[in-house]
Amino acid sequence: MQRRSLLKAAIFTAAAGALSACAHTEAPRDIVDIAASNPEFSTLVTAVQAAGLVDTLKSDGPFTVFAPTNAAFAALPDGTLDTLLEPENKDKLAQILTYHVVPGAVTSDQLAGQRMNVATVEGSNVHIDARGGKYGPGVRVNDANVTSADIMASNGVIHVIDKVLLPE
After folding, report:
1. CB-based contact 71:122 (threshold 8 Å)
2. Are 155 and 31 in contact (CB under 8 A)?
3. Which helix (H) or strand (E) holds 162?
4. Does residue 125 carry a pLDDT above 70?
5. 138 in helix, strand or coil?
6. What string of DSSP letters covers 60-128?
7. Could you say which architecture CATH assigns to the domain 28-161?
8. What does 3-53 look like in DSSP terms, one character per residue?
9. Residue of 137 and 154 predicted with greater confidence
């Protein structure tokens, strides 16, 4: 009789543990969800919405996104962002934003010690230099610094940069 009680208790405990694990498990977040949850990317999220790229960046990917912060957008010349966010400039905004996206999920360890040109979704190349420099280790994308790397999403990876990249 005591064995049966112990077995029931063990089954109940295992079932309760499994249910509680399911209740606390979050669904993996995609690139847009991660950006939208971080106040430092509010300008980027607004721009992605204005350019009509939300569905693209929520798709399976994978993508590598070099994500400019609000401060990076604020450093653009006066009026540039406001002009880009106007509906008639949607194509130009989409061009700039897709210049920040590389097909595939590329993490910092895959870049370490290398210098290369990489094709973006926009069609042009960005120059990545992950060899470090006179100020220590670091990664540069064109003239922007990667300030935080390897924010993993369900459909790729985000690297935070301190400047907005502009295609030539």
Report:
1. no
2. yes
3. none
4. yes
5. coil
6. S--EEEEEE-HHHHHTSPTTHHHHHTSGGGHHHHHHHHHTTEEES---HHHHTT-EEEEE-TTSSEEEE
7. Roll (2.30)
8. HHHHHHHHHHHHHHHHHHHHHHPPPPP-HHHHHHT-GGGHHHHHHHHHTT-
9. 154
Amino acid sitting at position 146: V
- Kindly report, residue by residue over 80-113, the tens digit of the pLDDT: 999 999 999 999 999 999 999 999 999 888 888 8
- Residue 13: per-residue pLDDT: 41
How much is the pTM?
0.81
**What are the backbone dihedrals phi and psi of residue 79, each rounded to the nearest 5 degrees, phi first?**
85, -15
Residue 134: band (very low, low, confident or very high) from pLDDT cuts 50, 70, 90: low
3-state secondary structure of 144: strand
Q: Are strands 63-68 and 101-103 parallel, antiparallel or unpaired?
A: antiparallel
Instruction: Write phi, then psi, for 125 (nearest 5 degrees).
Output: -100, 150
- Could you state, in order of their start, the residue ranges of all structural domains in the chain? 28-161
* DSSP 3-state of 27: coil
| The token pair that represents 89 in the structure block | 């400039």
Per the CB < 8 A criterion, the answer to whether 35 and 156 are in contact is no
